[in-house]
Amino acid sequence: MIEVTSLSKTYGAKRAVNDISFTVDSGSVTGFLGPNGAGKSTTMRLILGLENPDTGTATVDGLPLAAHASPLRAVGALLDAKAVAPYRSARNHLRMLARTHRIPDSRVDEVIALTGLESVARKSAREFSLGMGQRLGIATALLGDPETLILDEPVNGLDPDGVIWVRELVKGFASEGRTVFLSSHLMSEMALTADRVIVIGRGQILADTTIDALVAGASGASVRVRSPQAAHLATILDAHDGSVAISGSDLLHIRGLDAAQVGEHAAAHGIVLHELATTGSNLESAYMELTAEAVEYRSDARPAGGAA
Ligand SMILES: Nc1ncnc2c1ncn2[C@@H]1O[C@H](COP(=O)(O)OP(=O)(O)OP(=O)(O)O)[C@@H](O)[C@H]1O
């Protein structure tokens, strides 16, 4: 578990991180979203102890990372995949790191296999494509078989196979009860990978919630439910502050409640559902709405509803 409490960091006149607090739970994947310059990398560096905060604390499993007996076994991190000596082979890079942390060479071979780098393990890092470099960065993060993974843009430069591989890797990691905190600008990928999201803008937390709740809270989002007991369900949801529109005999469109809440109210009253979905909005539009005021670097010719 990662716990960030009242964390602030200023560079000159720039308040990169402004009094933020949040928790990243173990056993799930938490996404970290925000426009360019929002403070994501700075927050990750502060958690990793690579920078000192002006105020506040960041702990991993109850301790600042530096206080862990073996930090590489506590946290595996990918911040900048290019941070590898260019003339050293991938295998040697991993072996040197392993030896300084008393990790056996057999683990190096394991992470090379796990990240699909066997055929290029003897090549020097400067010969690596962006995607291979990214895989090496992930191999480095996995080396200590850590309890927590912190990954800044892990799918950057990966091909579709690689993107799916990272998705499955981090989900599998979380399903073992470990902690995953990752940033990405790819909203569609984040929606498929993360259970929760923390959104940051101009150094402040804008949202800390589930993806379903974030999407449901955006204007335009509604929950679509089909049920043979639609009228009964409408009455119940209405009493729980849902704004309900009925179409036909079995279809409801609900605003003000997310899909999980609708499903739970239905289950509590033994109501059968034939369909339950969030419609009319997605993570990208919810994110754009949330961060509209926090975008610092925006191109003039940005299409309406376009990507950040
Ligand atoms: N070492 C530094 N010196 C000066 N300013 C910095 C430094 N690191 C970050 N900043 C500034 O702090 C702010 C937050 O930067 P940060 O890299 O944390 O954002 P980010 O959310 O990771 O952005 P991106 O998505 O573009 O990577 C930016 O305005 C950035 O220019």
TrEMBL record:
PROSITE patterns registered for this protein in UniProt: ABC_TRANSPORTER_2 (PS50893)
Xref: Gene3D superfamilies: P-loop containing nucleotide triphosphate hydrolases (3.40.50.300)
UniProt domain ABC transporter: residue ranges: 2-227
Xref: InterPro entries: AAA+_ATPase, ABC_transporter-like_ATP-bd, P-loop_NTPase
The keyword Transport is annotated on this UniProt entry: yes
MF terms in GO: ATP binding
Regions crossing the membrane: none
Keywords of this entry: ATP-binding, Nucleotide-binding, Transport
Protein family membership: Belongs to the ABC transporter superfamily.
Protein name, UniProt field: ATP-binding cassette domain-containing protein
Provenance organism: Demequina litoralis
Lineage: Bacteria, Bacillati, Actinomycetota, Actinomycetes, Micrococcales
